[in-house]
Amino acid sequence: MVAGQPPSADGAEVLSTAWSRAMGLRIPVVNAPMGGVAGGRLAAAVGAAGGLGMIGMGSAGSVAALERELAQLGDDAGRFGIGLVDWVVATQPGLLDRAIAAEPVLISVSFGTDMSWVDRVRDAGIRTATQVYNAEEAKRAERSGVDVLVARGAEGGGHGAVEMATLPLLDAVLDAVSIPVLAAGGIGSAATLAAMLTAGASGVWLGTCLAACPESLLSQDGREAMIAARGTDTILTRAFDVGMELPWATRFPTRVLRNEFAARWTGHEAELARDPAARAELGAGIARADQRVTPIDAGQGVGLVTAAEPVAQLLGSLCAGAARLLGR
């Protein structure tokens, strides 16, 4: 059940679900653990705003990178989570152990089929989450003991399977399991937040709208590109993973802002894999932050991003607006 009411003068809770209340959150919002974007400062800001802030360890995740971002949480970190990628955990010895040792309230591991991590994390008294893309995956994750699922629709930015849009996926997953489900993909307004909660989501997993906030690790050029983009300016591609020789499964392309490199190589990844000069050009362009070639993860809700708002302001507006809609 969703509780929604207009914001009070003292800033008291305006939006909640049974899951968010059980987690000790004031709002049913979790930031997506976006690699290279969701660092300690963003996680701390989301937590201070009443949600659950997640530190993301993406393709470049490592023990050293996690240590660096944990240090950015500050002395009053409060509740936070850590998001990991299955194949990165497998290639970075000690990363999962360090994540567990940090004592977050939630650890998510996604993009894989080995669920052996679930018991290790739960045995440490930490809740678990994973992204799913269809009902059968949701059932398998529930049988593995996962505490909360993230139904990530094809509208979402970054890596993900392209199987279902967010609302149909949410319906299918809710019908398949009895554990809490968070909705992800294309959520960037009060209306879409309210829609997901009305449909039965226990909360939302927000990425694109928070990536542009000044507390994120995104570069200023990347932030400006997101603000200037329309919802039709994204593209699904494997070109960057192939160009950077990252071992992402073909099932998980990435949704990014369309740029020259994506336009040139999407659909021609086999040719790119045989072209060392093109791959070297990509690496050099990313190193100098050339926006013609640098990937910027963004979902189809990017057109709703019109300013680099601080996290507290953005989440306050989204949740208050959703509460008003739900209270009609």
From TrEMBL:
GO-annotated molecular function: nitronate monooxygenase activity
Species per Swiss-Prot/TrEMBL record: Nocardia macrotermitis
Protein name: Nitronate monooxygenase
Organism phylogeny: Bacteria, Bacillati, Actinomycetota, Actinomycetes, Mycobacteriales
Annotated TM spans: none
Pfam families documented for this protein: NMO (PF03060)
Keyword terms: Flavoprotein, FMN, Oxidoreductase
PANTHER family membership: 2-NITROPROPANE DIOXYGENASE, 2-NITROPROPANE DIOXYGENASE FAMILY, PUTATIVE (AFU_ORTHOLOGUE AFUA_2G09850)-RELATED
InterPro entries in the cross-refs: Aldolase_TIM, NMO
